[in-house]
Amino acid sequence: MVEDCVFCKIRKGEIPSTVLYSDDDFMIIKDINPQAKIHLVAIPNIHVPYIDMMTEEGACILGKIISKISHLQEELGITGGYRLVVNQGENAHQTVAHVHIHILGGEKLKDF
Ligand code: 5GP
Ligand code: ZN
After folding, report:
1. CA-CA distances (angstroms) from residue 111 to 78, 82, 86, 87?
2. Is 17 near ligand 1, meaning CB less than 6 Å away?
3. How many angstroms does the Cα of residue 38 sit away from the middle of ligand 2?
4. Is residue 93 lining ligand 1, measured as CB closer than 6 Å?
């Protein structure tokens, strides 16, 4: 946990958020600045700043997140398809240095 990390603060309840799912390993919240009709962020509890610093434990949690998302499609409003995105570093416009997976869906997304 890092004192000035937005996502660690959200997990501690110091910053309010809309939580759709949480367990011992991670939480799924609504993104504050949605880029699609449904835009959620899955945030591991452990603070790993960048995907290129990922630990084995962290990677295991990312796997659990991906598996759980597939089972929560209805609850999350992403039936019909979704996009998972992880931004790494400056060129990808990563703004929060706490690894997270964006979940985008709820509509037909733009093709790459
Ligand atoms: P990044 O750009 O690092 O890949 O994604 C960070 C995401 O976190 C952005 O989509 C941004 O809108 C979201 N975000 C930043 N601060 C907050 C916050 O306080 N609450 C919520 N719910 N989302 C946030
Ligand atoms: Zn953090």
Report:
1. 17, 12, 17, 18
2. yes
3. 23
4. yes
Determine, yes or no, domain membership for 112: no
71 is catalytic: no
**What is the count of structural domains for the chain?**
1
| Ligand 1 midpoint to CA 111 (Å) | 23
* CATH number for position 85: 3.30.428.10
Q: Is residue 71 assigned to a domain?
A: yes
pLDDT (tens digit per residue) in 67-96: 999 999 999 999 999 999 999 999 999 999
**Any domain includes 53:** yes
Is 110 contained in some domain?
no
The distance in angstroms from the start CA to the end CA of the chain is 35
| Nearest protein Cα to ligand 1, atom 1 | 94
Smallest CA-to-CA distance from 109 within 33, 38, 43 is with 38
pTM, two decimal places: 0.97
